Amino acid sequence: GTTLGGAAAETGRYYGAAIAAYKLSDSQYVGILDREFNAVTPENEMKWDATEPTQGQFRYTGADQIVSHAQAHGMRVRGHTLLWHAQQPGWAQNLSGTALRSAAINHVTQVATHFKGKIYAWDVVNEAFADGSSGARRDSNLQRTGNDWIEAAFRAARAADPGAKLCYNDYNTDGVNAKSTGVYNMVRDFKARGVPIDCVGFQSHLGTGMPGDYQANLQRFADLGVDVQITELDIEQGSNQATLYGNVTRACLAVSRCTGITVWGIRDSDSWRTGQNPLLFDGGGNRKPAYTAVLNAL
Ligand code: XIL
To answer: Which of the listed residues 37, 188, 203, 261 has the most CB atoms within 10 Å of its CB?
Structure first.
């Protein structure tokens, strides 16, 4: 293949990018998107604050623009994200207990229903585990509604859109460590009890190194019977950026249930990691050495 998406498709995978609806009028940006990528993730447009700014009043303008663009260009859409402790609307931040639980499940149902049939995979729940050595859930307003909030969200998402793959997504879970093992134990428990979960997303916001057991970690999740995806890849610019991008690509390809990779932005100037130049294209839209390393590895 001569493009990222084309090369990934040769093994049945996708190569995606996080995109912003307001940039769809930037011809350089859209030119790269349409040439190189066969999947997209809305960077912010499907989050709770964007889709339900007032309780019970849903707004899908930006998200619908992205989904329309994807459909017109044959790209898969990763829905991101139904429930997360961050980027909640103020009204939700001010709820707790059964009022918050009902609002959260209603949010899952409404948003998943709106996009029914159009989403390849939903990040149903994002970042619900704590950093550090506890392997425990993160404290959050959602967690305080009861430990079963995650499975309740997955069941509601399945009921609303049975065709979408349902993922759990997190960061600092890219190697074998206490946090990823906490997620692993949850997924194993969900599979044992029939809670609907199909995939696990590994954000992979990497610095200038990566865990030596990156591939082994993907494989242990795949062995539980879920797909795995690299969902928000970006790698701090350093002398080894291209090498690391190649290594991540090869790790995914070595795991048969690793179904795709998404980079968290297109050009360095689009990145949320200001000044770290962590993406595959420079600010002028030119392919970087990291791009060539990925293409050669696919
Ligand atoms: C980031 C976006 O890139 C920014 O534009 C926004 O201001 C904050 O969120 N983990 C996630 C993503 O799951 O949703 C975050 O995206 C980056 C970290």
So the answer is: 261
Q: Is the ipTM of this complex over 0.95?
A: yes
Query: Who contacts 118 (Cβ-Cβ below 8 Å, separation ≥6)?
Result: 67, 71, 77
Residues taking part in catalysis: 232
Q: What type of residue is 81? A: T
Q: Decide if pLDDT at 1 tops 90.
A: no
Q: What is the mean pLDDT of residues 236-240?
A: 96
* Cβ atoms of 253 and 298 closer than 8 Å: yes
Distance CA 235, CA 58 (A): 34
| Ligand 1 atom 16 nearest Cα | 43
The answer to whether 36 and 4 have CB atoms below 8 angstroms apart is yes
Q: How many CB atoms lie within 10 A of CB 146?
A: 12
Alpha-carbon distance of 42 to 291, in angstroms, equals: 21
* Two tokens, residue 17: 């990018």
Residue 155 has what pLDDT? 99
Mean pLDDT confidence for 5-10: 98
> Could you tell me the distance, in angstroms and rounded to a whole number, from the CA of residue 20 to the centre of ligand 1?
11
Whether the full predicted model's pTM is greater than 0.95, yes or no, is yes
Nearest to 72 by CA among 121, 118, 26: 118
Phi then psi for residue 84, to 5 deg, are -155, 150
pLDDT at 115 over 90: yes
Average pLDDT taken over every residue of the chain: 98
Residues of the chain above pLDDT 70, percent: 100
Q: How far is the CA of 44 from the centre of ligand 1 (A)?
A: 7
CB within 8 Å of 15: residues ≥ 6 apart: 4, 5, 7, 8, 36, 37, 38, 39, 260, 261, 262, 263, 294, 298
